[in-house]
Design brief:
Length: 1504
Amino acid sequence: MPICKREGFDQKEGKNETFHDNDLVFCCYITKRIFRDYEEYFRHVMVINSTVWQCEATRKDNLTYEEAVKSERAARKKMEQFKQSLRAPVLLVVEHARQSAKQTLNLLVAKFLRKRYFVGEQVSVVGKKNTQYTVLGVKPGTSMPEPSNGVYEDTDNLEYRLRPVKGGADSSTEITVPFGQLRRQRMEFNMENLNMFIKSNVTRVDGILRPKPEAYKQYVTDPGVSFSSIFIGKMPRYSPSKIKKPDVKDAKKQSTLNKFIVADEVTAAKSKAKAKADAKSLAEEMERVRLEKQARLAELEQKKAEKKAQLMERVETECNSFLQKTDDLDRSDQKVLPRYKPVVTFLPERLLGDAFMMREFMHTYTGLLSGIEVFRQNLSFYEMSRALSAREIAGPLSDIILVLLGTVFDLQKEEEEECAVKYLKGRVAPQQMEEPYRSMSLGTLCHYYSERHFSFKINELPLDALTLSEVLRLHLLSSGALVNEKTERWRVMYRNGYSSKEDPGLELRLRHSRILRSLKNHPIYKLKFGDIMELIRCLMSQILTYSGTINLIEERMEQTAKARQELRNLLAGENKRLAAVEISRKKITQTHQPLISAAEPDKKQEVVEKMNKSIAELHAQSDHLHRKHLQQVNQLHSQLFNFLVYLGMDRCYRKYYVLESMPGIFVEHSPDSMDTCLEHPPLNKSPSEIRQQAQLPKNRKDLRMYLLKLYGEDEKKSRRSAKQSMENKENQEHRVNGTTEPMEVESDPPEIPTQFELMMCSGDSRNCIVHDPANGQRQRWSYIYKSEEIDELIDSLNPQGFRESELLQELSSLRGLIEQHAKSCPTEVLTLDNEISRRKFTSTMHSETHRKYGDANFGLADGTDLNEVMHSHLVDRIIKFETDIYTGDLGRLKVKDMEKWRNDLLSGNYDPQGKLQWGIGGVLDDEVANGSEDQESHGDPEEDDDDAAPASKYATKPYRDPGQYLVAQDGDGSPHEDRRIGKEDLEVETDPAEIETAPSQVRNMAAALLQVEQAIGRRFFKEPYGMKKWDPKNEVQRQACESRLQQWEVSLMESTSYAQVFLHLNLLHDCIQWRSSTNKSLCKVCRRGSDPEKMLLCDECNGGTHMFCMKPKMRTVPEGNWYCKDCVKNLGLKNSHNEKDKKQAAKKKRKFIVEEEDTANEEEEVQEEGDTEEEDGDPDDEPEEQEEEDEDDEAAETESRGDQSEGSLRSARSVVKVSGRATRLATRPRGKRLLTKEIEETVEEDTESELEEDTLTEDDAGEEEDNEKVCQRCFYDGSEIRCARCSLYYHLECVHLKRPPRTEFVCKACKSSESQRPRRRHSHMNGDGDDDDDQDEPQAKRSRSSRNSLRMSVDKSTSRQSNGARNNNNNSTNNNNHRRSGRRTNENLPLNSAALYDLLEQVMKHKAAWPFLRPVLTSEVPDYHQIIKAPMDLAKIKSKLNMGKYQLNEELLNDIQLVFRNCDLYNVEGNEIYDAGCQLERFVMDRCRDMHLPFRPSDMNAVC
């Protein structure tokens, strides 16, 4: 309170006066006082605005009242900022220094504090600004001697023992820091707040400045603080100040002469003085008594206030102990946690957590994973168990890793589409870099390695169970590669700040390099399952870093936040509705109550029933709305509960999960200890105390009132009992006979549970259930699923613990959903605690997975060494590959005895039958054995010129595997010793002799594959190992392709595992033009592979052509070499013909010159009427020339791949393929429609083999009569009218007629040529046929094409007779003959493969097609095949189309219709699969309608 330095100002408020609303008063807002008199108010305002005030805290003078108040408030705030831990040391120094000057004392204390830090003080360390530490102790430095007097004056050499404040990074770690690295915060200690603290808590006693008793008691005495408890050594000694005491002066006076005065006067004076003294003493006594009474009252008030303060302090302490949350291990009111059922499965306990997380990951991100359909949208528990327990090649483990790795590759490709990713080398050599930049630079070299030796990116390499190990190794070696700045910025923006050095694959490469070195020589299936899980975790972590996954997670988080907000709004709305219902009920009651009171007795019951009826209707409506509210709440809860839920941890750090893929609550007691054992763990309360505590109010206000009442009653009872005990003592002395009440004998209190039973810390790290990972009583994984178990868990959790309170909140909010989810917990697979259950589970696992993985080891017995499995299958693949090459006329092995070569390869005694050469310069096998190999390394592919052969540039660089620079970890060995991996890195026991023979077998397989590759004709390679269009004259491109093959050969011969050989085999297999194989030849005209005995094969490109598809038809197989039209045209090759054929060809060529002119004129007329055709909606209105160019390009790419240097390999063999084909081509054959210009060229180039029409044989005449009537405009059959002059047929639509003319029809070509050349007119009026030969009529003939249904032959005399009859009976003909509308397009062909493939592709990619993609398994639907006798699925339909089993469009569409009929038959309306089938069938109907395909819907569509 400010002090006024002038008298006459009363700061105290006056008497309590009552003011009325109409009173005139004056208010001073600064002091908040009200005056009736204006003069008093004016005097008051003048005084408070005068500078006569002094700050009570700082003693500043000449201030106004308001300035003094502000000064006191600022001083109080500064004093509060003074550090709590420094207050006790300040008071100790003040007490010990005994100074008299405040300024000297302030400087002395400030110097003392600046040189020291005290125990319990929070400080910061230089370089660690974000972490606060607590001083635990002080010790002298290593070279600092102990002082003789015990006082450490040189405090700069002291060291302080610190520990991070709770909640920091690692609160259990202690560090030792010298004095120079410690700092205090400036606001906590400075001269200003130090002076304020000393001024407020120091008083002057006998001239010496000493602490105030209450302050010293609060900060020193009560906490028990001494200098030795907060610092090392003794308190420094200070010289006390000298105090000058005032001299005591002699107060004696000389005696007076009053004793010599007259006695009477003296007596009167004495009596008067005595009376005066008695009055004075009486007044003093009365004053003393008054003061004593006042002191006693003040003492009583003080004791009462102290007692009340103690009571309030006790109450607050109890409230804090009951309601304030603390660490679970520090509490003493814990209940016993229930014991859970341990999880015992077929898998080892150490793999169980990773297996659960893997399955949950695949279940959660099903829509993101590529190829997840192999698991039918979810990985089953049996498949997961088999994957992590069985050693097999093509088992579920390979499918899991293929799905994850394929997803990573797809995400990489999406990223490359959005941002061009360019990998960069480091500016310096990798050997001179530090980690992780060294490994990042080497990852870039791995990308270059793939493009150098494979000519493909890593994410484009063929991926299957056999190549998985090598592709995964290359992917991990390339993870975290350096990228350009643009890509790095893009990743930071769209991948949440991701950078290359954060790649999980890079971390795996640095921490577990031994796994990658093992993959170089062994398949992934031979690694330890722990190492395999490391790889799977790495792939899952990589998937989570991509933008697609991040977007999915953010979308789910947004949906969750939205659902939570909707749930809160819904609950708030429901509460408002219930309140409104209660108000309405009260209104109804209040409205009817007066009516009930005023009603007559006989009508009162009627009014009551009416009121009850209104209330019942109100409650019924409310119940209906409440049920609707509960449905909405359950729906929102299900949205919040649609993926993995982490519930929380209990007191011993056990984690609780709810998995979507596995019903139940799973508890994990991880071996990773969260902290250290407590030094003094708290003792738990008795169960009765815990029960009493549980009955206390949970609200702080209610609890405070309860405790105040409880402690007040206890005090009254204690006083009453003391008084009563005194009365009983007095009465006992006068009682002769008394009665005694029976004594209550308390029963034995229940035993307090042990720390182990409570799952609490025992203080002994060697025998602690919480902090000892090796404790035998710990359960790594356990589970609960019953409602009773969940209730027991909720009751045992402590709501005041940090961890258990969060767990309790989650369990309470999701309890209903958890109980419903946990009902279907598969306990039979989680409790395999005996041999019988394990055998049953094993049998079930094999039966459930046998259909899919019964041939996982390619027919070899279970337990066979995986290297032997891969070796056997690789031998079969190489022999099959070589057989396809040889039988398909693509090449021949350059060995003496091919049969012996195959048998040696099968028997394991491989013999190349000669020296092998490979790579640039043709390195010999013996040169490599002598160590003289000198091959190309992997450099930057962008340094190469694609048009130049880089052979000379990289010929001198040695081959280097991208994994040879791996950094070796502890126990991994040297990084250069990765050529051989020891048995300790593999979980499967391997024979040492087998380890020695494996590299030689791998090299033999590589050599055999090398021989097969060198046997293939170079013109049969596709890009990048071959030209896009074979041109032997283009030397630059040929050398570039040859160089790529040489790099492939180099890496092949350096293979150290079977997976690497399989990778090279698949690359080579995919780069061969298999459509050039004779086994897969299709006719170039009809695009069919049927009638192989009538197909001629080109001796240059292996292209096939049916003899009956040629123009003219070929009757016999020609002698010598035969070349197709494309080879003759592009390569300049010639076929041998006799003179007669040459003359006939020349004659026919001259003969068709006029017809070509006529056709040109006709085309000009048709062009003028093009608009009419477009208006009629002609489906075949695409430009014919563009379609013809596309077909020519395709034919050129397919057939023009000849190599003259190898043409002699097949020159002596027959060119007719008699036997059937071994395999079908997997690609879709395209339908081809011959156009006008193409037919004219064909007619000019390929003439008829007969001289004249009268020389035709009887067979030829019969064949011509069978030809249908082909329109000369669209060249499709089904013509309806014939020209009366040229006898050529046309469709009515093609000549723009709506009905047949009543007179003779003359085509426009005949009309236009009438003025140039007279033509003989045919007369058909008499009905007899005209057999005269029309020399001007073209005799073009063409055999039928079953694929395209084209007809080009013209009817002869028989057709003319039928035409005459048709002209005489136009009306009858129009009614009897089926009229074809419009030109025939690809949709009208008997089998339009292109359209059907397009239809199937769209249908299989539809979102509702998932139930129909694969066959229905009996294990999933046991009674399906009992109801459905003809099952069908889309995969089977596509397979049948690939194998050429369909001849008509209707056959394929019938199978699609069968799929929907089966769906309608088995499923009921409203079923999920039924709805999907209904939706998919509507999509098929729409697509077939657009593509003009006939499709009949099932009955299910009518229901939809």
